[in-house]
């Protein structure tokens, strides 16, 4: 577990290094992009002792090891992760980020969405759509504190689990949807 957390922390640092170096300054060229990728690869390889490959493509970063791969995409106009299950609904709004993480044991995919609709509307949508797609609601929570509202759901179907986290603050609602499947 500690090794997994260490690797995930390093992956986040590497993604930040690559995306910062390649996205913050338009004067940086491809040679600089490749240098940033190499530096991040060396950091993670030194810490884990494993071979990795980092590929940056526009707004996404993919990190591959012999144990699996993680792809992170950010910014407005992001896409759903490749292979997003058709029976896991995605609320109509702006996709602000997505990620996928695969290992021989399974896969995890996440998408984040921003909308001006209320947490009530988004929560009602997910309850109805998840049920119609055959997901079972295993847990749900709803809380309000001042100007913030949070709705959470944990669902399951076949060998997959999912979470939906809805957070409304002021006039913006943020939605995070994750699907985890065993391979």
Can you characterise this structure?
30% of the residues lie in helices and 44% in strands. By secondary structure, it is α+β, with helices and mostly antiparallel strands. Strand 7 and strand 8 form a beta hairpin. Helix 1 packs antiparallel against helix 2. It is globular and about 45 Å long.
Q: What topology, given as strand order, has the largest sheet?
A: 1-2-3-4-5-9-8-7-6
- Say what the CATH topology of the largest domain is: TATA-Binding Protein
Order of helices and strands: HHEEEEEHEEEE
Shape: globular
CATH architecture of the largest domain: 2-Layer Sandwich
Helix content: 25-40%
Short description:
The chain is of the alpha+beta class.
Topology:
Layout: H1 2-23, H2 30-48, E1 52-57, E2 60-65, E3 68-74, E4 94-103, E5 106-115, H3 119-132, E6 136-145, E7 148-157, E8 160-169, E9 172-182
Antiparallel strand pairs: 1-2, 2-3, 3-4, 4-5, 5-9, 6-7, 7-8, 8-9
Salient structural properties:
single chain, nine-stranded antiparallel sheet, 9 strands, disordered N terminus
């Amino acid at each position: 577990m500690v090794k997994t957390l260490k690797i995930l922390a390093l992956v986040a640092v590497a993604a930040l290094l690559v995306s910062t170096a390649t996205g913050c300054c338009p004067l940086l060229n491809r040679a600089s992009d490749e240098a940033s990728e190499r530096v991040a690869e060396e950091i993670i390889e030194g810490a884990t002792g494993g071979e990795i490959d980092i590929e940056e493509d526009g707004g996404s970063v993919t990190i591959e090891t012999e144990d699996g791969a993680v792809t992170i995409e950010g910014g407005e106009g992001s896409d759903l992760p490749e292979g997003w299950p058709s029976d896991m609904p995605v609320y109509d709004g702006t996709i602000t980020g997505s990620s996928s993480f695969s290992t021989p044991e399974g896969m995890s995919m996440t998408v984040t969405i921003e909308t001006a609709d209320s947490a009530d509307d988004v929560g009602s949508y997910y309850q109805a759509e998840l049920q119609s797609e055959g997901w079972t609601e295993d847990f749900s929570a709803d809380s309000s504190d001042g100007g913030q509202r949070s709705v959470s759901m944990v669902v399951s179907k076949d060998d997959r689990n999912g979470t939906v986290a809805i957070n409304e603050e002021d006039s913006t609602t943020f939605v995070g949807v994750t699907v985890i499947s065993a391979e």
